[in-house]
Amino acid sequence: MHALKTEHLFSYEATLAPPEVIGPVVEGIRVNFWVTGGVVKGPRITGKLRPEGADFFTLRPDGVGLLNVKAVIETDDGALIDLAYEGIADLGPDAHARFLAGDPPTRLELRTTPRLRSTHPAYADLARRLHVGVGVGQLDTLSVSYDIYTVG
């Protein structure tokens, strides 16, 4: 059996604007969650999430949420890091119907695969690594928090 080794890269907390509900489309219910800012702290990256970017979220009819996030980290040393990831949140088989009835879940368990890209020499190697994210979304407070790990 092959061992899975991970190293904590950084954690972040982000604030979100109220959801922009596009509504039911072919794939499910589309909702945009725009990033309004955030704090990034960790052994490798420290800085802030810029108030731009969003999660272009889709809630499938089976209750699985698909994350599609684009954001920018500005590090304390002035670098810009492009943060993009897809992920999944299993909200339960009744989540789609509950959302349509006006009763969306307030807490989402989030699992992601972030891609990090930067031209800054201190962070350019991040694009050569696989990363995973474990997080929680709190729709009642319009916030998300993540721990991001590099897979070794």
Automatic annotation (TrEMBL):
InterPro entries registered for this protein in UniProt: UPF0311
Domain of life, per lineage: Bacteria
The name this protein goes by in its record: Uncharacterized protein DUF3237
